[in-house]
Amino acid sequence: MSVVLARVDNRLIHGQVLEAWIPSTKANCLVVANNKIADEGLHKRLMAAAVPRGIQVVIESVEDSARFVSSPDNDALRVLVLFASPDDALHAYRSGLHFPQLNLGNLHRPQGLHQLGCTVTLDRDDVENLEKLESEGVEIVLQCIPSDRQLGWRAVLKDK
Fold it and tell me: What is residue 107's DSSP assignment?
């Protein structure tokens, strides 16, 4: 299986993902790895209903998402993985869902410690989790939409 994009976006499935990232990455499978949404039947069904036909949707716990992505049965899929937080991304990575790069797209917090651009706010836990992912070899970048230039998160963090 090919993970074509791993993204932290606390809005999960929304227009920016469907209209910009799926065409840009040519993903044919969208995986939402989040324990809370996986347990909310109505919310889960509404999210899945928003995805165009032809795109497989998997909304599962972080552990089940890791198992799905790493299964050899799904080798033909081009997977776009969405996490609601850096904590979910770290948990997934350590559960076997590996990705070389993590895109920070949207992380809105009412009282974040670090405002990185207009769409990403990090608190102390976020920074610690991103540092742990980075120490495991994951490149962390900020990029809201595909036409934006990728920025290394540390360079942006230093500027603040």
Answer: B
- In degrees and rounded to multiples of 5, residue 39 shows phi and psi of -95, -5
- Per the CB < 8 A criterion, the answer to whether 156 and 148 are in contact is no
pTM of this structure: 0.93
Measured distance CA(80)–CA(82) in Å, rounded: 7
Percentage above 70 pLDDT, the chain:
97
| Angle in degrees, 0-180, between the axes of helices 62-70 and 86-94, rounded to the nearest 10 | 50
Residue 18 predicted with pLDDT over 80: yes
What is 3-155's CATH topology?
Answer: Fructose Permease (3.40.35)
What gap in Å lies between CA 32 and CA 40, rounded to an integer?
Answer: 13
> Which residues, other chains included, contact 7 with Cβ-Cβ below 8 Å and sequence gap of 6+?
17, 21, 80, 81, 82, 83, 102, 103, 104, 105
* Location of structure tokens 């997934």: 92
DSSP 42-53: HHHHHHHHTSPT
Q: Note the Cα 36 to chain centre separation in Å.
A: 15
**Beta-bridge mates of residue 116:** 120
Spell out the domain ranges in the chain: 3-155
Residue type for position 56: Q
